[in-house]
Specification:
There is one protein chain. The protein is of the alpha/beta class and 275 residues long. Helices cover 22% and strands 31% of the residues. The protein has a 7-stranded mixed sheet. A hairpin with a 4-residue loop joins strand 13 and strand 14. The radius of gyration is 17 Å and the shape is globular.
Length: 275
């Protein structure tokens, strides 16, 4: 049995006792293994877990999709509550990230560094292979070719390197793909490298169809041809469960609900089960 649960997300669901926040965190339970994908922006996902009958303290792997606060912000709280897991991040995860806004730079990055991991004795692995199976049927993918040129990164996102600011190409972003009997369930953080670029890489590298896709797409900032092609991609993809949320944006989710047969509003507390 495979269960994928959204521990926290921007929007509430039927369970009004759960906290919500701008961020995302998933728990994957498969064949006795527990994997955490992203940790939201605070430790609130830890409080939600027991209310969903989920024990996170046996997690063997924690995957952080990229180095933005709304995906890694709860990691410190997790480290205070649990240990013994392996952290997986992408290359460049610890490079400070900012957003340029009206002449100022807003810090958007992580509130911990590699020294913190060393002090806590946390095993950390950098995902550099195009695809790596970390547990039976659970794969981490990185390094996504930018094939769909309409999928553009907002230039306000920058990195601070050696005292200067350079465009952030989000080479650190990684995703998780989990095998089911009927295809792959794919978990996305924000899809800064481009949702279509990332999903095409999954199909090409793992050689299986995508059954479900959950998480953020950053279509909230997409416009014109790029947005229309992304909506068409999801509409005609054959993906049975399309649970886009977080940075997808309300207007885009409204459109997906109208045109995409498999779309559902993935919210805090939502679970998908696969045999």
């Amino acid at each position: 049995m495979l269960r994928i649960t959204t521990l926290i997300e921007n929007s509430p669901g039927e369970h009004h006792g759960l906290a919500t926040e701008h961020g995302i965190s998933f728990c994957i339970e498969k064949d006795g293994h527990i994997v955490i994908f992203d940790t939201g922006q605070s430790g609130a996902f830890l409080d939600n877990a027991p209310k969903l009958n989920i024990n996170l303290y046996g997690a063997g792997h924690v995957i952080l999709s990229h180095g933005h606060y709304d995906h890694s912000g709860g990691f410190r709280a997790l480290c205070s509550a649990a240990g013994g897991f392996t952290l997986i991040t992408g290359e460049g995860f610890f490079v400070p990230k900012y957003a340029f806004r009206n002449g100022a730079y807003d810090f958007l990055g992580n509130d911990f560094d590699e020294a913190f991991l060393s002090e806590r004795g946390i095993t950390s692995v950098t995902a550099s292979a195009p695809a790596k199976e970390i547990l039976p049927g659970i794969h981490v993918l990185s390094g996504f070719p930018r094939i769909h040129t309409e999928e553009k990164i907002n230039p306000r996102f920058v990195l601070e390197k050696d005292g200067t600011f350079v465009p952030d190409s989000f080479d650190d972003e990684i995703l998780l793909a989990v095998e089911t009997g009927e295809g792959l369930a794919v978990l996305l953080g924000c899809s800064h490298p481009g949702m279509r670029n990332m999903l095409d890489a999954v199909k090409e590298r793992l050689g299986r169809p995508i059954l479900a896709v959950l998480g953020g797409t950053h279509l909230v900032e997409a416009k014109g041809t790029g947005l229309e092609k992304s909506l068409e991609y999801l509409q005609n993809s054959g993906i049975l469960f399309v649970g886009m949320s977080h940075c997808t944006g309300k207007d885009v989710m409204d459109r997906l609900e109208a045109v995409c047969p498999g779309f559902f509003r993935n919210v805090t507390g939502s679970s998908l089960f696969f045999g």
